[in-house]
């Protein structure tokens, strides 16, 4: 039995100035209870992706986006009411042990 993906994005393209994509052909499938981290060099598009997902950037195109199997827009209230966490710096929880951090992120 195939499980419905929690979040599915297909071919996301984001830009700040025309003709210059920050993200191009970005796709993601996230299942229920999966945890994803974004890693990359400065300027790779990590923050741009989160801002787009949060509905803060209007200059994007996407082939398809679904949340729990239902098509949605990044600004839909139904989507925005779901919690997600973004840590903006490497030292967000430097005092946590790795186990404590995983427990926090998993909500246990």
Give the topology:
Blueprint (H helix, E strand, L loop, with lengths): L6 E11 L2 E11 L15 H8 L6 E2 L2 E4 L2 E2 L5 H4 L17 H9 L2
Quick rundown:
The chain has helices at 46-53, 77-80, 98-106, and strands at residues 7-17, 20-30, 60-61, 64-67, 70-71. Helices cover 19% and strands 28% of the residues. It contains three helices and five strands.
Q: Output the structural class.
A: alpha+beta
Please tally the helical runs, counting DSSP H or I stretches of 4 or more residues.
Answer: 3
Strand tally is 5
The average pLDDT is: 81
**Proportion in β-strands:** 25-35%
Order of helices and strands: EEHEEEHH
Count of discrete domains:
1
N- and C-termini, Cα separation: 28 Å
How does the major sheet shape up? 5 strands, antiparallel
Features:
single chain, 108 residues, alpha+beta, 5-stranded antiparallel β-sheet, 19% helix, globular
Walk me through what this model shows.
The protein has one domain. By secondary structure, it is α+β, with helices and mostly antiparallel strands. Strand 1 and strand 2 form a beta hairpin. The protein is globular. The protein starts with 6 loop residues before the first strand and ends with a helix. It is 19% helix and 28% strand. The longest helix is centred in the last third of the chain and has 9 residues.
């Amino acid at each position: 039995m195939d499980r419905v993906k929690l979040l599915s994005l297909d071919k996301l393209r984001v830009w700040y100035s025309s003709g210059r994509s920050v993200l191009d052909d970005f796709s993601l499938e996230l299942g229920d209870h999966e945890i994803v981290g974004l890693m990359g060099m400065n300027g790779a598009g990590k923050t741009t992706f989160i801002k787009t997902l949060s509905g803060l950037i209007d200059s994007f195109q996407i082939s398809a986006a679904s949340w729990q199997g239902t098509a949605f827009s990044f600004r839909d209230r139904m989507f925005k009411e779901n919690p997600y966490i973004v840590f903006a710096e490497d030292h967000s929880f430097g005092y946590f042990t790795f186990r404590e951090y995983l427990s926090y992120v998993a909500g246990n």
